[in-house]
Write a structure and sequence with these properties.
The complex is a heterodimer.
Chain A: E1 3-14, E2 21-32, E3 36-40, H1 47-54, E4 62-67, E5 70-71, H2 77-87, E6 88-92, H3 103-113, H4 118-131, H5 147-159, E7 165-169, H6 177-192, E8 196-200, H7 204-207, E9 212-217, E10 220-224
Parallel strand pairs in A: 3-8, 3-9, 6-7, 7-8
Antiparallel strand pairs in A: 1-2, 1-4, 4-5, 9-10
Helix pairs in contact in A: 3-4, 3-5, 4-5, 5-6
Chain B: H1 2-11, E1 16-17, H2 18-28, H3 37-49, E2 53-57, E3 63-67, H4 69-80, H5 92-101, H6 108-131, H7 138-167, H8 181-185
Antiparallel strand pairs in B: 1-3, 2-3
The chains are: A alpha/beta, B mainly alpha.
Chain lengths: 238, 186
């Protein structure tokens, strides 16, 4: 099983001197191919900081972060930007879909920005929309889609192309429970197909879709569950 | 009560033998609540005593049970009457957390976390079953969702306890642990 993400002893300090705030302390986390890992904790516990560092959006003060074996801090700014564009997908509670672009255009945009030809980018986008069950709605604008559909477009944008690591920050935030479950099914499918994912959430019901759940408190990983054993372990099934 | 009504609900679809009823009950509830055959016959004889089911000899002399019209009436009432929410009983988890607040040896946050971890682990198991469930088996989904929502409620309650603890900055300790002489001198 190859490691998609490996964070070792990551500490993040904001500010200096007596104003310094330690957002993350010696956090270590791995995500293997096929794995979905959830991160839970109260607000201010460091969940989003951990996710931002995993995705190269923020840089740790000390410690190491590798995505597919590449040490992020050793990459030049342009190489890091390329890795972020090509191998890492992000899904946030704020979807950040561009209103003037159709669903398909929103999904293909990151590939086009990366220099991919329009035709190829659109065919990748169509495949990603198919993966989230929206193949027939690619021509719609965000305003003409329901909240659940918009979130699926955002996920399609997160997995489009050959992205391997999917990072999601409260992706089910504004959704009802059945629609939220559909979002988790999509993340699960991405991981089951060999990708990896990190899901930050305060909602235990959604965290339970992960193989492992990590608990953060005051910037430290304090606990972790392992993968479910399957049917016989809990229920009285014969 | 709920076993009686469930057997009536199954019999409302057609007559059945004791063992058939047991198997049908377990199949509809995904075997989460198993029944033994003895329980099924005891329940059926109570239902018969109350005129809600009747029996006749079926194949090989086995008793074949069917629902009576009084039974159908009783079943309709069961479906149309809201289930009791239950009077609050002593809940071991609540007691444990409340007692930990006044303990000098135990950090309540550790107790909360141990309970939270166990609950999330249980949620993972239920969700695993749901992920592998047959989409057409609505009853199984309803049952798993019920377990999931109950366990989620537990986690949310634990989270709320932790948040309250955090806002109080320091764990509450028994006031009596402080010297009372201050009070006396005043």
């Amino acid at each position: 099983m190859s490691l998609i993400l490996e964070m070792v002893d990551v500490t993040r300090i904001h500010g200096e001197g007596h104003l310094a705030v330690q957002a993350l302390t010696n956090a270590s986390l791995t995500v293997a191919s096929g794995e979905l890992v959830a991160v839970m904790g109260p607000s201010g516990s460091g969940k989003t900081t951990l996710l931002s560092i995993a995705g190269g959006l923020d840089r740790q003060t000390t410690g190491n972060v590798q995505v597919e074996g590449q040490e992020l801090s050793a990459l030049s700014a342009s190489a890091l930007a390329r890795l972020r564009r090509r191998r890492i997908g992000y899904v946030f509670q704020q979807l950040n879909l561009i209103e003037g672009l159709t669903a398909a255009e929103n999904v293909s945009l990151p590939l086009e920005l990366d220099g991919m030809g329009l035709k190829e980018a659109r065919s990748h986008a169509q495949r990603a929309l198919e993966a989230v069950g929206l193949q027939d709605l690619g021509g719609r604008f965000p305003d003409d889609l329901s909240g659940g559909e918009q979130q699926r477009v955002a996920i399609a944008r997160g997995i489009v192309g050959n992205r391997v690591l999917l990072l999601a920050d409260e992706p089910t935030g504004a959704l009802d429970s059945i629609t939220g479950e559909a979002v988790l099914k999509l993340m699960r499918a991405h991981c089951d197909a060999g990708g990896g994912g990190v899901l930050v959430t305060h909602d235990a019901r959604f965290a339970a879709w992960a193989d492992r759940v990590i608990f953060l408190r005051d910037g430290k990983i304090v606990d972790e569950t392992d993968a479910p054993d399957g049917p016989e372990s809990l229920l009285n099934v014969r | 009560m709920s076993v009686q009504m469930s057997l009536l609900a199954i019999l409302a679809d057609g007559p059945g033998y004791g063992l058939q009823l047991k198997n049908e009950f377990e199949s509809r509830t995904g075997s989460v609540w198993s029944l033994n055959v003895g329980q099924v016959y005891t329940t059926l004889s109570r239902l018969e005593r109350d005129g809600l089911v009747e029996q006749r000899d079926g194949e090989g002399g086995e008793k074949l049970y069917s629902i009576t019209s009084a039974g159908r009436g009783r079943l309709r009432r069961w479906f149309s009457t809201p289930s009791p929410n239950g009077t609050p009983t002593r809940d071991e988890l609540v007691l444990k957390i409340v007692m930990s607040l006044d303990s000098d040896e135990i950090d309540s946050r550790d107790v909360l976390q141990a309970e939270r971890k166990a609950a999330v682990r249980a949620l993972q198991e239920y969700t695993f079953l749901k992920r592998n469930a047959d989409e057409s088996d609505l009853g199984w989904y309803f049952l798993l969702d019920s377990l999931i929502f109950k366990t989620e409620a537990r986690v949310r309650w634990l989270d709320a306890c932790e948040e309250r603890l955090k806002r109080k900055s320091a764990p509450r300790k028994r006031a009596a642990a402080q010297p009372e002489t201050e009070e006396v001198r005043r």
